[in-house]
Amino acid sequence: MKLRTILLFGSPGAGKGTQGNILGSIPTYLHVSSGDLFRNLRVQNPLGQTFLDYAGKGQLVPDEPTIKLWHDDIENRIHNGIFNPETDTLLLDGLPRNAAQAQLLDDTLNVVGVLNLFCKDLDIMVERLQARALRENRLDDANLDTIRNRLEVYEAETRPVLEHYGDDLVHTIDSTQTPVRVLRDVLAVLANLET
Q1: What GO biological process term is on the record, naming one (predicted)?
Q2: CATH of domain 3-189
């Protein structure tokens, strides 16, 4: 059975985590952030060390370990009764990150929509990321060169994923708005996906 899925897209600092956390509180919606999965790994775990090595350079973790980490996590959530694949919707944040990952997940996910949080102002995203670095002690958000590299990597690798899913599934939302206005626009899309 394929998992009913809505993908959350947007460059670092566009507000995916904020919107995902809010939407994940709606009954039958489960928000899963691949970044959170990696950040919650212990350094002693080989995958945790891999994440630190790549994140410290502003690079993405390779596809196979990323997909394996997510797959193991979702299986645990199903096994523990946190996610019911027959009734629940998965809000997937940060995965797939590139076209290869999208193809690896095609047999697992039934993607019914893609929320593309688009922020055209680079300065706003840099400001948000630096503020988040202070609040959450996130090393991957602290250095300006690392931030710019992450934004460039996002553009290069993630744009083809939007093309993979096509215009019919992609809903672009202006994330330069306040979080409440972004949420309003996101909920309008979700309401249409329910019908």
Answers
A1: nucleobase-containing compound metabolic process
A2: 3.40.50.300
